[in-house]
Amino acid sequence: MLTQIVLHTPKWVFVLFALLLWLGARQLMATTVGMARMTLMPVVMGGLSLSGVASAFGESPASLLAWAATAFAMLVVVLQRDVPAGTRYDAAARRFHVPGTAVPLVLMMGIFFTKYAVGVMLSFHPAWVHEVFFAVGISALYGAFTGLFAGRAIRLWRLAMRTGTAALAA
After folding, report:
1. What does the angle CA 115 – CA 59 – CA 109 come to, to the nearest 5 degrees?
2. CB 98 within 8 A of CB 84
3. Closest among 98, 118, 121 to 41, alpha carbons compared
4. How open is the CA angle 24-54-65, to the nearest 5 degrees?
5. Which pLDDT tens digit goes with each residue over 16-30?
6. What is the spatial distance between Cα 65 and Cα 142, in angstroms, rounded to a whole number?
């Protein structure tokens, strides 16, 4: 059965998987990243997350509310934490120096595999699309991924603002 699932998966899904794997793996090592790229990643991944909810459950108010509420809750949790040790912002170059981490890779794979698994489950059990607990649970999971991505980016923006303010004061 697993072979049939993989054989019936569109080719573009494998390309997307490889792209996300490559992007996530690049972040395993310390790097320097500009503000635009740092901002773009959570926007794109949040969009992919929200599209997972919309493509699976349509415009179900319960699903959208679960996604938004969980995204907000995770955002609040992440914002309570400091940026990882070794993270710096160079105001002159407008670039962040970030240590390597597996978190973006895990989040990207989480969104990808959730979307893939939901697609497979719904192809076998189409009626689940109308099961409130299934829809709300999956939407909340997507929302958690979104909140984590957004919170990590906002923490970096805060670092940039603090660093810029300190530079102006000096």
Report:
1. 15
2. yes
3. 98
4. 95
5. 999 999 999 999 999
6. 12
Our count of domains for the chain comes to: 1
- Cα 17 → chain centroid: 14
In the chain the beta strands, taken as DSSP E runs, fall at 31-34, 88-90, 95-98
Q: Any idea what DSSP says for residue 92?
A: T
Closest CA to 105 of 27, 4, 51: 27
> Is there a contact between 50 and 149 (Cβ–Cβ < 8 Å)?
no
Q: Return the SS3 of 102.
A: coil
Alpha-carbon Rg of the chain, whole angstroms? 18
Q: Can you tell me the distance from the alpha carbon of 170 to that of 164, in angstroms, rounded to the nearest whole number?
A: 10
- What residues does 31 pair with on adjacent strands? 98
Domain enclosing residue 77, as ranges: 2-169
Read off the pLDDT of each residue in 99-128 and give the average, rounded to a whole number: 94
- Considering only residues 4 and 106, tell me which one the structure prediction assigns the higher pLDDT: 106
